[in-house]
Amino acid sequence: MKKIQRIVVVLLFSMLFIACGGQADSEPTAEPEVESEVAESEPTEAPEESAIEEDSSANETDSSTAEEASISTEEEPTEQPEEEPTTAPVEEPTDEPAEEPTDEPVEEPTAAPIEEPTAEPVEEPTSEPIEEPTSEPIEEPTSEPIEEPTSEPIEEPTPEPIEEPTSEPIEEPIVAAFDNDSLQNPSGGVNFLSITGTRNFIHQSDISFSGGDTEDYVAFEFPNNSNVNQSVWITLECNLSGDVGNAQMAAVVIEDGVEQAGETVICNSGEQQLTVDNTKVQTVRIYYNITNEGVYGTYTLTVVGFK
Fold this sequence. Notes:
The chain contains three helices and nine strands.
């Protein structure tokens, strides 16, 4: 700022000096006065500038930022090109008294008082008292008494009595007793049938297979007559037990020792009518026509000669 003011002052004096230069050629007497005026005016400026410099030096450190901002905003004076003085034709001096130029008082720029920035009081942060955390008493865990497990008496399993399998008595198959009958010696002899005498008879017994008595023989006879073909009705009822399986009992007619084909009665099949030769002795054989090991059976044989 002071440099700018100094430059402005110098420019003003230089311009004034140039303006007065033409007159100095015609009136050489005026030059000493101008120089004296300049000389007089310059010393007056120095004390002011030194005072300003002293004032500003004290505030330069505090307001360096403010001055730089203010210098940047102010417009620097544009230096006008110096006009070379035109040499006017020298007029010969007339006898007229030369008019001395009136020295206009040079207006010195008033130096605006620099406002010193008021140093705002820095508010020091109030140090708030730091609240120290209150150390809460640490609760020590209470050591609970460890309950030792009570040793319960181990119940030993009572051994259950092992049931030994009862050996069931093996049933021996029932066997029929031997009655010592045969084809040649039938049981009960020969039963004679006649129209006026015994007309029928019943025979009961038992047989078994494979042990015991396996077959029985029963004989009967008719009286001779002119017709040899004689009708007879035979029934065989039986009851099987033991290991029956598919065992089956039957009765077959034998004439004079020869088994007659087709003259067979099946057990429990009801009454069967057969035709026999009345000139021959008839023998009935009771047996198992289908055998099975361990079967036992009782039977009832019924023979009717005349109805």
